[in-house]
Amino acid sequence: MSARLELIPLEGFPEVAPGDDLAALIYASLQHNRLQLQDGDVLVLAQKIVSKAENRYRRLAEVVPGERALDLAREADKDPRLVQLILDESRDVLRVRKGVIIVEHREGYVHANAGIDRSNIQNAADDPRVLLLPEDSNASAARLRENLGALCGLLPQVIINDSAGRAWRVGTVGLALGTAGLDPLFNQIGDCDRFGNRLEVTEPAVADELAAAASLVQGQAAEGLPVVLARGARLRASPRDARVLLRPREQDMFR
Fold it and tell me: Based on the number of CB atoms within 10 Å of its own CB, is 42 exposed (0-12), middle (13-18) or buried (19 or more)?
């Protein structure tokens, strides 16, 4: 684990459009910032630029809400077209209140409004768009890692992060939606602490911890820093991805 961690934002990162090659943009931005990837570096990307590159936009004018969406829209006081997209992106609706619908996203994580967002999107007043999460965040992270390896000659570890609320705390933190090249969980069960006590449940979600740290640098408004280079994390290499962070439903005490 890390004794010292650097979080370096890639300044001057361009606006991302559908079809853009994210690996090429990141490679150019690394050069612009006079940075060269080192062994063990982790690149943390804001989900939004991945979704933009993958053209995960949806125009509300093209959405026809069904009966369930109309009912939920009344309960949540939301646009029925947006609610229909939330349902389309979800496996299950868990909670509803004014302004928010908590769902189990089709990728398995619990998210408000299925992660669908309008912030930092250029919109025409008469033709609003929203942005969905990536189709498969882990696959997106894996592709990006391979493409960056081809450009940089070194395979970085990759995290795609997003901000989310928590059932027992106020506010949002960054979490890992998709990962590649690193073990998202650091299993210390069976290790001993400083006093020789054997650890029984200790399993830090290191991908989420790093996603949250990078989110602090990325910001949530007009900062324009969607890519952060994390250096010194010393995360274990692994073929496992962020799906290991999903708590099985039978162990979930909040549902």
Answer: buried
